[in-house]
Amino acid sequence: MAEDRPRAAVQTHELMLALVRGPALALVSLPLSIMLFVLSVVSIVLIPVGVGVVTTPLAQGGVRAYANRRRKLVDRWGGLGVPEPYRPFPLDLRKGIVGQVERCTLLLKDPATWRDMAWLPADMTAGFTTALLPPMLPLNHRLTKAMLEPTREMLLARRVEQLYETRHDAVDSSAAELRRIERDLHDGAQARLVAMGMSLGTIEALVERDPVRAKQMIAQARENSAEALTELRDLVRGIHPPVLAERGLPDALRALALRMQMPVAEDIELAGRFEEPVESAVYFAVSEILTNAAKHAAASRVWLDVLYAETSSGPMIRVTVTDDGKGGASLEKGTGMQGVQRRLAQFDGVLALNSPEGGPTMVTLEVPAVPLGPSEVVPSDRAS
Fold first, then answer.
1. For 162-211, how does the pLDDT look when each residue is reduced to its tens digit (9 = 90+)?
2. Spatial CA neighbour of 88 closest among 19, 39, 185, 157
3. How far apart are CA 40 and CA 202, in angstroms?
4. Which pTM does this prediction carry?
5. Facing residues of 366 across strands?
6. In this predicted model, which residue has the larger pLDDT, 383 or 267?
7. Which of 77, 91, 118, 154 has its CA 20 to 30 A from that of 291?
8. Sheet holding 361-368: strands in order across?
9. Rounded-to-integer distance, Cα 379 and Cα 31, Å
10. Phi, psi (deg, nearest 5) at residue 352
11. Which of 62, 28, 69 lies closest to 43, judged by CA?
């Protein structure tokens, strides 16, 4: 009996909330649904005469804003998460009337547009009725969720598109990396080795006639070989740092923090090893972020936090880099952070940036990662 009283109190509280929320929702949703539906239909009808090309994006913008508001209410009042199903617009969308035509075409091709259009009549009828009757408010939430959430086909199409884009970026990145390696070899170590070979030929001719000159050229050849070896080591480190292969991601990140010109307070909690491509992606992403903080943020101190977390989406490596610099960073400015985004996207990783003017700047990235078992870890002698 004692347990029944709290349960009854909770039910009474929920009913009282529904008595307030339901009629308020019905009062607001009915005129909005009718108005947005009529505007959308009239705009689409007017497309052949040209007027609808301008009005349809505006009307659909209103529909999407209203639908997103209802998704948030369903999540807040009913505890039912409803993700947005809309396809993103391309970044290179043109301006003017041509851009309006492109925007209108993209909206009409998006299945989510027509699901919103089908939801509006349902919301002004069944939705209005279930909202007006407080005990049926949960049914209103379920109806809204069922009609506004992305379908399995939409999720699959989005996933295929993401995979195509990320794999295309991976191919482009690999080709660019190969060109960089070829250029570095040609302009650096290869040129020094060719010069050293020519010097050895000259030394061979001078060793008996002019031993002093031959000794000088041998010393110069020794210096060239040392410089070529250094360049090759730097090149290898840029491809895959030896400390990352031998010691794993935590020690590689600590070594990276120590090499920075500004103080980096690191807190790294990673147990075990992960797949080599994932470790490499995280390492170079952190390297790029720290470099940006040093070069562009005018930061005096940086905090690096790395941990392994079990999330609702699966196991993740989560990295947070915070600096006390001037802020104002943006993913649209420059190519460094965009390159990090593309690198992480190849592993279904995400990057978030919060950088108000005046600072501080916080960069957070998450990469799906599963720790390797002891038998799956590459021994250090093989990795080196």
1. 666 666 665 665 666 667 667 766 666 677 777 777 777 777 777 778 87
2. 157
3. 83
4. 0.53
5. 318, 350
6. 267
7. 91
8. 264-269, 302-311, 314-323, 361-368, 350-354
9. 68
10. -125, 140
11. 62
Q: Rounded to whole angstroms, how far apart are CA atoms 143 and 74? A: 10
Q: What is the 3 state secondary structure string of 15-57?
A: HHHHHHHHHHHHHHHHHHHHHHHHHHHHHHHCHHHCHHHHHHH
Cβ contact 33:127 at 8 Å: yes
Over residues 286-298, the pLDDT tens digits come to 888 888 887 877 7
Q: For residue 77, give the nearest of 119, 19, 129 by alpha carbon.
A: 19
SS3 of 335, please?
coil
**CA 367/CA 281 separation, integer angstroms:** 9
Number of residues in the chain: 384
**Structure token digits, residue 20:** 């307030």
- The 10 Å CB-count burial string (b at 16+, else e) for 308-330 is beeeeeeebbbbbbbbbbbbebe
Token output for 282: 């995280």
The answer, yes or no, to whether residue 373 has pLDDT greater than 90, is: no
Q: Compute the distance between CA of residue 228 and CA of residue 269 in angstroms, rounded to an integer.
A: 37
Distance CA 343, CA 100 (A): 32
Q: For residue 247, what are the contacts with CB-CB under 8 A and spacing of at least 6?
A: 380
Q: Say if CB 22 and CB 137 are below 8 A apart.
A: yes
288 with 339: CB under 8 angstroms? yes
Instruction: Please say whether the beta carbons of 61 and 81 come within 8 A.
Output: no
Please report, for residues 261, 321, 329, 348, the alpha-carbon distance to residue 355 in angstroms, rounded to integers and kept in the order given.
21, 11, 5, 23
CA-to-CA distance for 61 and 104, rounded, in angstroms? Answer: 11
Helix and strand numbers, DSSP H then E, in the chain: 14, 5
Distance CA 140, CA 81 (A): 14
CB within 8 Å of 57: residues ≥ 6 apart:
100, 103, 104, 107
The first and second tokens of residue 119, run together, are 């939801």
Distance of alpha carbon 60 from alpha carbon 22, whole angstroms: 26
